[in-house]
Amino acid sequence: MSRQLSIEQLLRWRLALAETEAPPAPRAARLLEAVRPWWELWPERFRAQAARLGRMQTAAFGYAMADPRLARTGHPVPALVVHSEELETFVRVLYFSVRGDRLRLRFHLDGVSARAEPGYEVTFVSDGAAVGAADARPLLAAAAEHSTDGEYRLDAALPDEIAGRWERLKVTDPMPFRLILRPTAAGAG
Q1: What whole-number distance in Å separates Cα of residue 28 and Cα of residue 21?
Q2: What is the per-residue pLDDT across 108-130, written as a single tens digit (0 to 9) for each?
Q3: Cα(12)–Cα(101) distance, integer angstroms
Q4: Which has the least CB within 10 A, 31, 78, 103, 130?
Q5: How far apart are CA 23 and CA 95, in angstroms?
């Protein structure tokens, strides 16, 4: 004898089955750890990368003016790309806009176009990195997406303090930050 089940009973049965098969909920400490930025999870790694970033010297801006394509892009920004090994490079800021608390940034990543990643977690480090690792501090992290050959774009919320300082910057101004780029797809740590 076949018994007809209502849809409600069927859904309740499926829900009960799913609850019994589900893994236990993560502990609160694990949830809190998951939302902490990487520089808090690995402070020694951040200090070492910030020190390496701080030792990078920016190229003389006058030489970039010889190439008309680079003349409009502004000053080079030191960047450290963290893959299985770390690669020192520069980014060229192509577009920079701060409106309200939103940062919109487009940049070209020099020297890694053959190994372009679909996206990076971009950590903005204070330009105190140029002075020394003790003065370097992380400002924010945001996701950048690949758009064309070696070009990335990001749109992120800024803390009020940073937004107020950066809103007057133009794309041709020296940028008050350096960058640590970590591939999002590879989950580099």
Answers
A1: 21
A2: 988 765 567 889 999 999 986 45
A3: 45
A4: 31
A5: 45
